[in-house]
Amino acid sequence: MRLVGGLRPAVLAVLGLGWAWYGYSITADPGYARARGLAGITRYVPLTTLGWVWVAAGAVAVAAALVRHWRIRWQAAGFAALAGPPLLWGITYARAAIDGTGSESAPGSAGAWLAFAVAIVLVAGLAEPVWVVETLYERGEPRD
Predict the structure, then answer these.
(1) For residue 4, is pLDDT > 60?
(2) Which of 37, 49, 67, 130 is the most buried (most CB within 10 A)?
């Protein structure tokens, strides 16, 4: 918590690194099963490009976690970047499940990715606990 200065930035850093890692794995090995469930979007955008979208979203989130001034504005951008890719995945899997073009696991994938996107939006709306704010203020961190 000391490096990033709070619980919200810690969430941004952890998920941002996870997003970047996941995106890199997509670029390294797109995989048939994943490509089949995402056929609705891979008709227009190659899966490797979508992998780089995950990497970019992760990088934005990590950068937002490390910014000290105008923290809230940067955190908003970081959380928006985090919510985008799973929302896209969820919508694509949901469409594949509805029209029958996806695998049998498409409904489960849609539910999981959409729930993940909603959870990120909910965390974005949470305030730092009082004890975190007091600790940061005592350390001389700027109040936003």
Answers:
(1) no
(2) 37
pLDDT digits (tens, 9 = 90+) for 99-134: 888 778 889 999 999 999 999 999 998 887 777 767
Contact, 50 vs 71, CB < 8 A? no
Please give the Cα distance from 137 to 3 (Å, whole number).
15
Residue in the structure block whose two tokens are 């696991």: 105
The structure tokens listed for 117 are 């996107």
Q: Which residue has the tokens 């690194």?
A: 17
* Threshold 0.70, pTM exceeds: yes
Judged by phi (left if over 0) then psi (alpha if -120 to 50, else beta), residue 140 lies in left
Can you give the three-state secondary structure of the chain, one letter per residue?
A: CCCCCCHHHHHHHHHHHHHHHHHHHHHHCCCHHHHHHCHHHHCCCCHHHHHHHHHHHHHHHHHHHHCCCCHHHHHHHHHHHHHHHHHHHHHHHHHHHHHCCCCCCHHHHHHHHHHHHHHHHHHHCCCCCHHHHHHHHHCCCCCC
